[in-house]
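Lecture 7 notes: from sequence to structure.

We start with a single chain of 311 residues. Read the sequence below before looking at the structure.
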Amino acid sequence: MSSSLSTRLWSVLLVILALGCSVGWAGDPPPDARQQAAVAARDAAIRAMVRGPASVPLRDQGVLKLPEHFGFIGRKEAAAVMQAMGNHTGDDFIGLIVPLGKQGEESDGNWFVTLRYDPAGYIKDDDARHWDAAGLLKSLKEGTEAGNADREREGIPPITLTRWVEVPAYDADSHRLVWSAEVRLKNGSDPDPGVNYNTYVLGREGYISLDFVTDVASIEQQKPVARELLAATEFNQGKRYGDFNSTTDKVAAYGLAALVAGVVVKKLGLLALLAAGAIKFWKLIAIAVAVFGASVSRWFKARFGSKDTAA
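Now the structure, written as tokens:
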């Protein structure tokens, strides 16, 4: 492994350690144990990361044709990194995609992508022809508000979903769905709110999701990156949407509108964590996993100025 890559990954670890020392969660192990876990997660991610260009199998379902200057961290190691940041992963979790700088250069990406596969069955896409964008947004807002009680019980500040960053758009030819909404802290000032840029590829037996986690200030610049990674993700022959057999295959209990407005509401863990902690937890998450090349000390100085402002 190159020394420059090791340095970038060490920068990632430094912010993970800052996160572990700064945020107290009920039932969390003491800081020393969290730091040790973060170190172990870093080391395992270094060893396991696949650098593009490469073909990354996505279980028995598909393949990610990982472009150059991107890295993929597989399920086991990626789950440990997510846990070091206070986030949990389920059986549907596949791994993480992170930006890597060109040879000899730093990455300017302050984002990461989570990959998941949900064996929900074949999702009918008929309702995509007449999206009710206003109704979908209302449902997302209500679902976010309903989840605030659970978040507050876990010591996570409440959040509010404010607007579409990108109205749901579905390509019936490629069976790919994109949508994005802005999330802010419900109480107090949140000048740079978080964004999940949600992209999906539908298949015969379920769907692969790539959730691009970034902030509002960066999203317009990074939308092409998210779409590039979506286009690089495809199902295997026999698992594709067009391979559906109506006599034998499972049909999902919901359509595309419900995927956006209902099912996703239950998976707002990342969105909740964007708001967690009074130390601008969102930026710590985005940098901790995603930056792979920014100067951590420069980043902290620019964003926080001093320890008092980060507390």
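Confidence is low (pLDDT under 50) at residues 1-26, 267-311. Keep this in mind for problem set 3.
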